[in-house]
Design a protein that fits this description.
The complex is a heterodimer of chains A (about 375) and B (about 575). With about 375 residues, chain A is an alpha+beta fold. Chain A contains 9 helices and 20 strands. The two termini of chain B are about 45 Å apart. Chain B folds into 2 domains: about 260 residues, MetI-like (MetI-like fold, Orthogonal Bundle), CATH 1.10.3720.10; about 290 residues, MetI-like fold (Orthogonal Bundle), CATH 1.10.3720. Chain B is globular. The chains are: A alpha+beta (about 375), B mainly alpha (about 575).
């Protein structure tokens, strides 16, 4: 039996949602559309409002204003509030929220209590098989490792036959190896099951790896949303650029436009060198700007005339090659610069920038 | 459907507000109004028709002088001595049980629970049975008459009250020491500290537990009524709770002096309770649990191990053995305390007398049954109210309503039973209450309400800890996965607090059966609870019958506890039993 037979993916529509805690505005006019079967990731730092938004969708918090629809059902408006148990969704909690007095089997079967026991047993066994913990069915949560507990939480969420699963930073308590393994499992299992997923994280690599759509939140607002490639390549603000991973952020001066949406800029500590970069948003030619450098947009040369001269300050072996920290100018560094060959500390190198991978944004944004 | 749900939600918020008001009303009627009005009487007797002065300090000076002043002074110094002794003994004992390889490490805590359940008046009675001339000890050939003289005075009072305070101090110290991983001692040792320096380093870490143990021992001793009623009174050593009781039971009753004494009693009990509350809620030693490593026990050499274990055995033989053996012997030996020509004559007469109506016409089965009914009702009502209050305290919000509830409950812990009883007599006999609100004076419901009031603060605190430790996400997970409010409570909250709720229920049940001051003050005519009946027999010098009744009551209490725990073990799911006292997997 295919999982998708049980589940019907639903769309989620969040419209102008606000949430106020005392005098703190946790969510400010948030509007997001998630299509049926889509895997959406809410990305943002601590305190950006992503958990509050997820809890509003779940029905654990009630928004102060705005509307939320799950599929065709209006679940939140000024006059309507559907309690969580009637929203037909499931959730994987950050702390797993496994009931300590129930076995793995009982935890996973919790949402199936109205099903005939034979069907419930079969479904629970099937799910435990799929997440690879069928041998742990009769254990209690305290007898499991963190990764195993997370699998139970995932199986419990999948068991609910919901069209929507919410993930509240489910990997944040795991070590790097388990994170990677479970990330793949979550991504695969939810897509195989054909469920709509809303996943929150503050880890940009996790977000880019899993999402069909990313919504970046800051101070309770959605600051950018779109496919991961678009968010990565064309961040609309310095905040998004920083939060999606930078190798360097450098002061710059606009020299002249180049190409359709590009500019040449000069760096104060290398006035004789021009760096080309894209401008994701329209720029005022007279305004001060900053150059934002992605790790993938830099390469090192031992000699030649390209790039800016720098000195290697640190080098780390990362398996497939080396990551370097290079000092350019008196107080500026470019980090995570990958090279297949090792450049020793204090070695003089030339740092070359890829015009397609780097971008300039106004300095006001940089200050933000 | 959605609109209905929305309306339900709004209704639920209104309901929450209303339930908050209802809870305050309950607290007000149960504790604040009776105690508040009573202590107001100390300076404003005219407000309650007890005199002509609207404000006077006359009764303050009256209460602080003469026999009442002496009673307060005696209670204070005895409480200090008892608390110091209890903390010293319990700290040593807790350290031996938790940190060494002493024998009987499972047995000693069980005996401590046993000691916890024995009321102080029962202890006094047994000690007297054992030590008196021609008493139990004489009957088995131990001459103790020299000790009897000493016992019938401050020495005996301190002995009984110290043994009664031991469990409170022990439980607090055990918690403190249990969480203190041995890595702190190891760290001190590897950085060059000797044994003494290590002790000096580690001791401040258990200081909050020491303060708590002292505070709770002090408050319990100060508010005890059993020893002042049964021992201090007979030895002409006045103590505050008994002189307060005398002030209202004499004719004419002097409520105003009693009110001043109540204020002093509460004032002396408040600081230790607040100190204990602050040290525990700041959780100064909370960091010591959780990540602490498994403790490493100090290994005694075989001879020392036997010696120390024997010492602990002796302590329990005195503190638990004497009361229990004394009571059993006193109930089976004929004419104990009366010269009988040297022959010990065993008899079951006292049990037969106890179980059939006596000459005085007071049966035992009636009061026993009544006390069980009262205890059943009180324990159940207290459990329900305590859960509701504890849930409110543990809800995590820090609104003023929660703070006020917390303050009132904390303050109520400091109200001794005798003060509460007298407060009830005074408040529920006020004409304005009896004529215009409700007339409960000298009725069984009033007695039960007072017993609920005295049990509620403690049980609420007992439950608030485990409820506060339950992650909110457990309930949220249940709701998100389709469970309504009732199913969420039944399947996630109840299993996690079931054990502590059962223990709370059992403690209230046992303590209610043995409760003396409130029963003595508030029992309804012709409806005597067991403790009052037993005291009547003892006061009538029918010691054997009174003791036999005490033994039967004690056995019945333990049977109820054993059966209840057995049923819990048999009928609850395996997962429920895995959850420890604190609501986390054990």
């Amino acid at each position: 039996m295919e999982w998708s037979e049980f589940m019907k993916a639903v769309s989620v529509s969040i419209s102008s949602v606000e949430k106020v805690f005392g005098d703190k505005l946790a969510l400010d006019e948030v509007s997001i559309e998630v299509g049926a079967g889509e895997f959406a990731v809410l990305l943002g730092p601590s305190g950006s409002g992503k958990t509050t938004l997820l809890r509003c969708i779940a029905g654990i918090e009630r928004p102060s204003s705005g509307e939320i629809r799950i599929g065709e059902q209006l679940v939140v408006s000024s006059r309507v509030f559907v309690p969580p148990e009637r929203r037909q969704l499931s959730m994987v909690f950050q702390d797993y929220a496994l009931w300590p007095h129930l076995t793995v089997r009982q935890n996973v079967g919790f949402a199936l209590h109205r099903r005939p026991s034979a069907e419930r047993r079969e479904r629970v066994s099937d799910l435990l098989d799929r997440v690879g913990i069928s041998n742990l069915a009769d254990r209690f949560p305290s007898q499991l490792s963190g990764g195993e507990q997370q699998r139970v939480a995932l199986a419990r969420a999948l068991a609910a036959d919901a069209g929507l699963i919410l993930f509240d930073e489910p990997l944040s308590n795991l070590d790097a190896d388990r994170r990677e393994q479970l990330r793949i499992e979550i991504s695969t299992l939810t897509r195989t099951a054909g469920i709509t997923a809303i996943y929150i994280t503050h880890d940009q690599s996790e977000a880019f790896a899993m999402a069909d759509q990313i919504c970046v939140l800051n101070h309770g607002r959605v600051v950018q949303s779109g496919p991961p490639e678009k968010v990565y390549r064309d961040p609309v603000s310095a905040f998004v650029a920083r939060f999606t991973g930078l190798a360097a952020e450098l002061p710059a001066t606009l020299l002249c436009p180049c190409g359709a949406s590009g500019f040449d800029v000069a760096l104060p500590f290398a006035q004789d060198h021009r760096v080309s970069a894209r401008a994701p948003i329209a720029l005022d030619p007279d305004a001060p700007v900053r150059l934002f450098v992605r790790a993938a947009g830099v390469r090192l040369e031992r000699s030649g005339h390209d790039g800016i001269v720098g000195e290697v300050r640190d080098v780390a072996f990362v398996g497939r090659g080396y990551e370097h920290v290079v000092q350019i100018g008196p107080e500026h560094f470019v980090t995570k610069v990958f090279s297949g060959e090792r450049h020793e500390r204090d070695e003089t190198v030339r740092v070359c920038f890829d015009p397609a991978a780097n971008f300039v944004l106004p300095v006001q944004e940089g200050v933000q | 459907m959605s609109s209905t749900a929305g309306t339900l939600q709004l209704g639920r918020e209104r309901g929450r507000r209303l339930s908050g008001i209802a809870l305050w009303l309950v607290l007000g009627l149960l504790i604040v109004a009776p105690v508040g009005c009573f202590i107001l009487l100390a300076t404003s007797p005219r407000l309650f028709g007890q005199g002509s002065q609207l404000f006077t300090l006359r009764y303050v000076s009256e209460a602080l002088s003469g026999v009442t002043g002496q009673g307060l002074f005696n209670s204070l110094w005895v409480s200090v001595v008892v608390s110091v002794l209890a903390v010293a003994l319990s700290t040593t004992l807790a350290w031996l049980v938790h940190r060494t390889n002493v024998f009987g490490r499972r047995l000693w805590p069980i005996l401590m629970w046993l000691l916890f359940l024995v009321p102080t008046w029962m202890m006094t009675l047994s000690w007297v049975d054992v030590l008196q001339p021609y008493g139990s000890a004489s009957a088995i050939g131990l001459p103790t008459s020299w000790l009897y003289g000493e016992f019938m005075g401050p020495f005996g009072i301190i002995v009984v009250l110290t043994t009664a305070s031991l469990p409170f101090a022990y439980f607090v110290m055990s918690a403190g020491l249990h969480g203190l991983g041995s890595e702190y001692e190891d760290a001190a040792r590897v950085h060059g500290a000797g044994r003494l320096a290590t002790l000096r380093t580690v001791l401040p870490m258990v200081a909050p537990a020491l303060f708590s143990a002292f505070a709770i021992s002090f408050a319990e001793t100060m508010s005890d009524f059993g020893v002042p009623f049964t021992l201090a009174y007979h030895t002409h050593f006045p103590m505050a709770t008994y002189t307060l009781f005398s002030a209202i039971s004499s004719f004419p009753a002097n409520f105003s002096v009693a009110a001043v004494m109540a204020i002093v009693l509460i004032l002396t009990t408040v600081p230790p309770i607040v100190l204990q509350y602050r040290t525990t809620t700041r959780r100064s030693y909370a960091v010591l649990s959780g990540r602490s490593r498994e403790i490493r026990r100090r290994e005694f050499a075989p001879a020392s191990r036997w010696l120390v274990s024997a010492g602990i055995g002796l302590l329990f033989a005195v503190s638990v053995g004497v009361p229990l053996v004394g009571a059993v012997l006193g109930s089976f030996v004929r004419d104990l305390g009366i010269y009988a020509g040297g022959a010990v004559r065993l008899t079951t007469t006292y049990y037969r007398q106890a179980l059939s109506p006596s000459v005085a016409g007071k049966g035992f089965s009636g009061p026993l049954l009544l006390s069980n009914q009262i205890a059943l009702g009180v324990a159940t009502l207290t459990a329900v109210l305590a859960f509701v209050f504890a849930r409110r305290l543990a809800s995590g919000t820090s609104g003023w309503s929660q703070r006020v509830t917390d303050f009132l409950l904390l303050g109520s812990v400091a109200v001794p039973g005798v003060v509460l009883g007298v407060g009830y007599i005074f408040f529920y006999n006020l004409p304005v209450i009896t004529l215009h609100v409700i007339n409960l004076y000298k009725t069984l419901p009033l007695l039960m309400l007072a017993l609920v009031a005295t049990a509620l603060p403690g049980q609420t605190r007992l439950l608030a800890g485990p409820l506060g430790q339950i992650q909110s996400s457990l309930g949220e997970a249940a709701r998100v996965h389709g469970a309504g409010l009732w199913r969420t409570w039944r399947t996630t909250t109840l299993p996690l607090v079931s054990r502590v709720m059962l223990w709370g229920w059992l403690l209230t049940f046992a303590k209610t059966i043995a409760e003396l001051p409130i029963c003595q003050i508030l029992y309804a005519p012709s409806q005597e609870p067991l403790s009052v009946t037993i005291q009547a027999y003892l006061g009538n010098y029918e010691i054997g019958t009174g003791t036999a009744m005490t033994v039967v009551a004690l056995v019945e209490m333990f049977l109820v506890i054993v059966v209840a725990l057995g049923l819990f073990r048999v009928f609850t799911p395996r997962g429920w039993r895995r959850i420890g006292w604190s609501g986390v997997s054990s």
